[in-house]
Specification:
alpha/beta; 57% helix; single chain
């Protein structure tokens, strides 16, 4: 049976009150991922929309021959979209429900709930002198409420706008402390219920990143030719978390105070909330009686320059969408170091509630740009939108390159496999490998690859060494932030000079192979080569050999588990966390004594000893494999030097890891028209009052949340169906209608602000 993982990197835009719509969408992704976990883990049969998604996965397997897993493993967001990202990541990692966030949005995302108690008008007569101004703003002909708010909610919006205008002036009207408390309490409520298992497999990495803006910024060094360095201010402050999925539910993706700080910072809308300062989270911790044990390490990670300068208490963070409204780059950065036990279909999915905003550009193209339009566009709209296009184009280039490289490697395969078969085809005991034999055969294969590559082998070796130096420099820099270096390049240059002094300027031995010093260096430090070799085997097991009916699925699964068990030995050596407490002191002296640092890295990581353990495990795994699979795995393991010598220079030090293209999908009202045509204008109400509409009316929030769920359900089904080529339109429509009706049934008792909302949409679903 063909298997595939649909891995989703979700990007949540900033969108002011349209974040309520985005929550509805993310809730459907959560339902789909939960159904996938239950389906593959023999979880309980659930009702509602989860049952529809489970039936969809069953149909994919029974009718279309694909056993599909849905893994949302990268989540990024900006502004209010960042709040959705934080809560979704917590639910994925912990196995808890996402329901408490629904109540946060519906009940608490209201201007009257968010107003700072000190800013509220103390009576109907507060700021009585301002009433004429309020009347003029809200009731004059062509006023903003009449122009942008539906008639049935104008009275409610006018009342709440009046309260807002008559609250304090020249200070943010909303409470920062109150907002932080709301977020923290909602996170605690998410964690209070009985958890299920996490939605990702044990050990699978989950990446969460939200954007924040450091209002004052900090000075960072840039390298030039002349002068050598200059100082520039940096205001971007991403707040990122990475966690390996635990085997059981109930574990937080990060400390809740840190998640609260991330959500509060990214959604600190300028003028509405005060900038977030660290003291606000400290007050929250004290008020809730929670110890923040990892406070220092967290701050050192997200604002290292401020921590070194002792200025972290004075940092003021404002809304992340000021500079980055759609954090695609963060999602791209999280793609590295992700292994796969089966075929991967990688998707970048972004939620854009208002793609119709570009239509207004076409409608107004003949009109001159107004005074305020030019100011606000240059300060906000243009800087937020342009990077989105840049990132999408970068993803497209990356995907084209992945396809090109996959084609190159496929073309190389017959020649490489022929060379390996010729080298080992008549070897005695090849079907009975032992750790000792594996080590000897591995050495023989590496020498043969060097001989066959000729003079090109030296270019390959230099590429390997350059990559090793860069990696070691990053490890040293991370261990010694007190060096105050802008990047790892000075460390890499110093390590390179040290190797030159050790006689490694040239790696050749005069006969086309490597010198003894070069071999010793690679054995001590070339961790990436070991990882690439095992990943090639994993890829063959997951994709190339899975369709072979002569190899049982159980044997392939056992082999994959064995390979990833061995990979874990090497992954444990990638960071500097196991180098000892005193390594930071040693790393701080790298510019004066780089040799001591290199020797310490070799002595503490002990890669040759890890190799011995790895080949013990590989030998045991090979013994358990059917004969044909054993031969394929063994020849791939031994033949890897041939592949690596041919492909590493092409892949610019990435090596044989992933050749899968990244596909991009959008979720918006314009893309989900099965129920109602017309897109955003026909469905969402939060767009009114300059996208603040849902903060002034619960009816609007309920409407947008429900449409978020419905549009999310439609696009989840589209995503799943797009992983095969023969999913019929009739099948698709039937699943969508079932999902729509299930969502409406689930929300029937909760969404009551507009009594006719559910009934109206249900009639449209049945009529479609």
């Amino acid at each position: 049976m063909r298997q595939k993982e649909l891995r989703i990197a979700l990007i949540c835009y900033g969108g002011v009150s349209l974040a309520v719509y985005m929550h509805g969408v993310t809730k459907e992704l959560w339902h789909l991922a939960r159904a996938s976990r239950d389906y593959h883990g023999d979880g309980p049969e659930r009702g509602g929309v989860s049952a529809v998604y489970r039936d969809l996965l069953t149909t994919m397997e029974s009718r279309h021959g694909l056993r599909l897993r849905v893994l949302p493993d990268i989540v990024t967001g900006a502004s209010a979209g960042g709040i959705n990202a934080v809560f979704l990541a917590q639910a994925i990692h912990s196995g808890h429900s996402l329901e408490p966030l629904t109540e946060l949005w519906l009940a608490n995302a209201d201007v009257e709930r968010l107003l700072d108690p000190d800013a509220r008008p103390w009576s109907w007569a507060a700021k009585l002198w301002a009433m004429p101004l309020v009347w003029w703003l809200l009731r004059r002909p062509g006023n903003v409420v009449s122009e942008s708010v539906a008639p049935e909610t104008r009275a409610e919006v006018r009342r709440k706008v009046s309260h807002l205008v008559r609250s304090r002036w020249f200070e943010p009207p909303f409470s920062g402390d109150g907002f932080s408390a709301l977020l923290f309490d909602a996170l605690m409520e998410v964690s209070a219920g009985e958890p299920d298992a996490p939605l990702l497999p044990p050990g699978h990495p989950l990446d969460l990143m939200v954007t924040a803006t450091d209002f004052r910024g900090f000075l960072s060094l840039l390298r030039l030719n002349s002068p050598p360095t200059v100082e520039e201010s940096e205001h971007r402050m991403p707040i990122a978390f990475r966690s390996k999925t635990p085997p059981g539910g109930g574990e937080n993706v990060a400390e809740p105070l840190e998640l609260t700080m991330a959500a509060r910072a990214t959604a600190s809308f300028p003028g509405a909330f005060p900038p977030l300062r660290l003291e606000e989270i400290d007050r929250l911790a004290a008020a809730r009686g929670r110890r923040w044990n990892g406070r220092g390490a967290f701050l050192d990670r997200i604002m290292p320059v401020h921590v070194r300068q002792g200025s972290e208490a004075h940092v003021s963070l404002i809304d992340g969408s000021v500079l980055i409204n759609a954090p695609f780059a963060a999602a791209r950065g999280a793609l590295t170091s992700r292994s796969a036990q089966r075929e991967v279909d990688r998707r970048f999915v972004y939620i854009d509630p208002r793609p119709d905003r570009f239509g207004s550009l076409e409608q107004s193209i003949d009109r001159p740009v107004g005074f305020f339009g030019a100011i606000f566009g240059s300060l906000s709209t243009i800087p937020r939108e342009q990077p989105i296009r840049d990132n999408l184009e970068a993803l497209e280039r990356q995907s084209r390159e992945a396809v090109r490289l996959a084609r190159i490697v496929k073309a190389l395969r017959p020649e490489v496999e022929g060379a390996v078969d010729k080298l080992f085809g008549m070897t005695l005991f090849l079907d009975r490998p032992t750790p000792k034999r594996l080590a000897a055969w591995r050495t023989k294969a590496q020498q043969a690859a060097a001989d066959r590559a000729g003079y090109a082998f030296q270019a390959y070796a230099q590429t390997k060494v350059a990559g090793i130096i860069d990696t070691l420099a990053q490890v040293v820099l991370a261990a010694a932030p007190a060096l105050l270096l802008p990047d790892a390049e000075p460390i890499a240059l110093r390590l390179r000079r040290e190797l030159d002094e050790r006689g490694l300027f040239s790696l050749a031995d005069g006969g086309g192979g490597l010198s003894e010093a070069a071999v010793a260096f690679l054995r001590a430090h070339d961790l990436a080569f070991r990882v690439r070799r095992l990943r090639l085997i994993a890829r063959r097991l997951s994709i190339d050999w899975e369709a072979d009916e002569t190899i049982p699925d159980t044997a392939l699964e056992a082999a994959r588990e064995a390979i990833y068990d061995i990979l874990a030995l090497y992954f444990a050596q990638e960071s500097g966390t196991n180098l000892g407490d005193d390594f930071a002191v040693l790393a701080g002296k790298v510019m004066s004594d780089p040799g001591a640092v290199l020797d310490a890295l070799a002595a503490r990581r002990l890669l040759p000893e890890v190799d011995a353990e790895a080949e013990e495990r590989l030998s045991a795994a090979l013994d358990e494999m059917p004969k044909e699979l054993r031969r394929r795995v063994l020849l791939t393991y031994l033949g890897f030097p041939f592949y690596d010598a041919a492909t590493l220079p092409l892949l610019q030090n990435e090596g044989l890891t992933e050749f899968d293209a990244v596909k991009v999908d959008r979720i918006s009202p314009e893309d989900a028209r099965s129920i109602r045509a017309g897109g955003t204008k026909a469905t969402l109400r939060g767009t009114e009052f300059y996208n603040f509409g849902a903060f002034f009316s619960r009816a609007y929030r309920e409407n947008d949340y429900l449409w978020g769920r419905l549009h999310g359900a439609e696009r989840m089904i589209d995503l799943v169906a797009s992983t095969v080529e023969n999913f019929s339109d009739g099948e698709l429509a039937a699943f969508k209608q079932r999902a729509f009706l299930a969502v409406l049934d689930e929300e029937d008792g909760r969404l009551t602000a507009d009594p006719g909302l559910i009934a109206r949409i249900r009639s449209e679903v049945l009529a479609a």
